[in-house]
Amino acid sequence: MVFFKLVLVGYLENITSDRRLLEHCALRLDLLYFLGYEIDEALPWHSTLSRTRQLYPAALFEHLFDRVFRLCVQQGLVAGDTQALDSAPVKANASLDSVCEKQSVHALVPSLTVVDHEPALAPPAAARFSAPAHQLRYEAARQAKRHQQPGSVGANHAKAPLLSNKTHYSPTDPEARISIKPGKARALNYRCSMAVDTAQGVISHVQADFADSRDSLHLPGLVQQLQQRLAANELRLRDLIADTGYSNGFNYALLENSGITPWIPVFGRYKPEAAGFTYHALADEYRCQADKPLPFRKYRPTADGNWTKHYRAFYQDCQHCAFKATCVPYMDHKQLVRSAFDAAYSRAWHRQRSRQGQHMRRVRQCTIEPVFGNLLHHYGLRRINVRGQAGAHKSMLLAAVAYNLKKLLRYQPKQQLGMAVVLPMPPPAPPVRSRYWLRIWRKCTKAPQKQ
C-alpha cells in the first residue's frame, strides 16, 4: 500500500525520479500523514521502490486502473458509447548515443567445434540482437549513397549517419525503439496508445507499445481490451474516433462487424472510384472505356497487414485496343489494384466528408489531445524512468490512474434545486356589468383592517 501511495504522489506531483520523490515526501507533513509515517520516521530507500516495481506484475497495476475507472463510472463521469483513440511517443530511459550496431546472424552463430569434448563458449547477451546479412548490406549501401550526395551550399561538415532499428539497438534498454516525429529529433521512445471517453475526458485504456510499429496494427487488440473493460461496467462501445494512422481496411471491417462505427479518416491517396473504369459487383470485374473486362485475378497481402485485390485485363484485348497508347503505352495489359475491403473504405470515405464526420474530428481534437498534453507535461510521463516494455506499461498505467483520480476528485455533479410555493387562489371576479357592481366586488374582496 505504501508503494502505490508513493508512486501516485510522484505522478500527481510530476516527479519522475525516485530519489527526488522520497526527498520531496520527507519535507511535506501532509504527504507523511497520507503515507502513514511519523515526522521522525524514515521513509523507504529509493532502491526499494525500484525493486518493488519490478516485483509486482503488470496485472496488479491493471487491477488498480480498473478499480479507479469503476469509481469514475459510478460517479457518472463515463458514458462509454464514444471513445477517442490516439498514440504519442514517450522518451525511454536510454540515450541515443549509446546505441550499438547489429551484427550479422551468420557471424553470431557459435561454432560447434569440440575441444576436449566441450562445446565452444556461447556468444554474449548483446549478440542476440542481430540482423540478416542482406539487410545490413542494403543499409550500408544506402548510407554510402547518402554520403556521396552533395550537401547544402557552404556546409563543410560530414553528414551524420542515420540510425535505424534495422541496424542498431540500445544495450541499455533493448526494447526501446528509434523513432522520429515530424519537427523533432530522433530518440529512443515507447509508444503510448490510449483511449479516452468523450463525456468527461476519463482515460478508459492505456498500453505501452513499440515505437517503430504502426498504429493500425494495435487497434484490434486495443479495441478488444477496451470492450471487455466497458462490458464489465455495463457499458457498450458504439463509436470509435481515431486519426488517419489507424486507417486500415481490416480495421474498418472488424469494427463494423462488431457493431462499432469507425470515425477514422482514410488516407489521402484513396479514391472511391477508379477513373475511366466501371465496376460490376455481380461479376466482380471492372470494364474499361473500350468495354473490355478486367476480371478479378488474385489477392495479395501488403506490408501493414492489409489485403489487395488485383484485376487484370486479357492480353489480347489490350494489344488490339484503340486506347492502348493512352492507357498502357509501356505495358502488355492493364492492371487495377484495389483494396480487399473497398466497400468499408468507401463507407469511411463518405463518413469523414459528412457533417457528423467533421464534428467527430473536432471532438477527437478537443478530447484526447489535451489529455496527452497533461500526461506528458504535468503527470510525469515526459520520460519513462524504468526500462523495458513491461516497466513502461506500468508507468503509463500509474500516470493514467493519477489523472483519473484527480478527475474524480474535481468532479462535482450539477444538482438543480426546485421549490414550489402554493398560493391561495383569489375569488373569481363577477362579470363587470356596471361601475356600481365593480365597487361592491372590490369592497367585498378587500382584506379587513385590524382594529
Write a structural description.
The chain is of the alpha+beta class and 451 residues long. It contains 15 helices and 15 strands. Among the domains are: 1-55; 278-349, no CATH class. Helix content is 39%, strand content 16%. Strand 7 and strand 8 (203-210) form a beta hairpin. Helix 1 (2-12) crosses helix 2 (18-26) and helix 1 packs across helix 14 (389-410). The chain is flat, with a radius of gyration of 33 Å. The termini are far apart.
SSE map:
Blueprint: H1 2-12, H2 18-26, H3 29-35, H4 46-55, H5 58-74, E1 82-91, E2 100-101, E3 103-104, H6 105-108, E4 130-131, H7 133-148, E5 168-169, E6 177-179, E7 187-197, E8 203-210, H8 215-232, E9 239-241, H9 249-257, E10 261-263, E11 278-280, E12 285-287, E13 293-301, E14 307-312, H10 315-319, H11 324-327, E15 335-339, H12 342-352, H13 355-378, H14 389-410, H15 435-445
Parallel strand pairs: 1-9, 3-4, 9-10
Antiparallel strand pairs: 1-7, 2-5, 6-7, 7-8, 11-12, 12-13, 13-14, 14-15
